[in-house]
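If you are new to this repository, start here. Below is one unmodified record pulled from the training split, so you can see the exact layout before writing a loader.
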Amino acid sequence: MKAQVLTGINQMEMVDVDVPVIQNPTDVLLKIEVLGVCGSDVHYYETGRIGSQIVQYPYRVGHECSATVVEVGSEVKNFKPGDLVAVDPAGSCYNCDQCNIGRENTCRNLTFLGTPGSGDGCLCEYITMPAKSCYDVTGKLTPIQAALSEPFAIGLYAVLTAAGNNNSKIAILGSGPIGLSCMVAARAEGIEKIYMTDKIPARLEVAKKYGADFTANPDTENIVESIMAVEPAGVDVVYECAGQQSCLDEAVDLLRPGGKLVVIGIPRESRVSFSIDKIRRKEITIINIRRQNDTTQKAIDMLACGKADIDFFATHSFSFEDSKKAFDLVARYEDSVVKAMIEF
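And here is the target side for that same chain:
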């Protein structure tokens, strides 16, 4: 089969590799239909690493995908060839202390598509996955929606983890796919006010059109002053979705005493810092989000019934052969891109 692999910094090549075969009776063989280019994929493409996870070339990235079932293991009863599935890229062991207390997203033995040290990604024609990581969306979602349900599930998990009651006022710093996922989830859950920021004007226009009450650009205004002029007491929750030290600093200033800072963005630096005086005096709670936990099916259901709409995420489409063009577009934030989709 064909696969796209990273061969160096900002380098990608098409290669021939063996079609995977089912090794476990609980696995399924999948034909990839659509892949969404994620910011973490671009981290590996541009820098060859995220923190301690370092690429050994050649390496295949990709984890946001939808697929068609080709073959099922002998113990798989809930899928059949031809089914369209959304894929959760994580594989939990379901036996460790974390899994046993309902924290499958921090499983001690977690495997993850397209993560160095864990396995190759899905930027290829076929993969095998545990059936538990697949969600049947046949007749419910399109292949593009199914692929987008992965980042949406993360935003939904973040909102359900921290947003509280419907009277909450939240700020989302970073209006890329994860920030927009938080926005859509928060709006669907009835959050009262949503403030959003980004340095890319086109993304602010998208945020304003599809759910934000207020948008601001930190390159052209002091976003803390602008938001505090409307919310002088501060906001209840801030979602940091950009992975930037400046956003973390802005978040602390924006929060009311007793507020929550939810860190979702992945910084390229190995360390970040906080003003201990500010977070102590305000008694700020800092919550880190590690993907999603038990929200994939809820995300799919919300999309299927129309409670949430994420179709506008998919701004660009590329063929499998043009995968490198998709990565370059996202890496350079060109042409008002929100999410580049690779269609097989």
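Two things worth knowing about this chain: The chain has two domains: 2-139+310-343, 154-288. Residues 56 and 116 are 7 Å apart (CA to CA).
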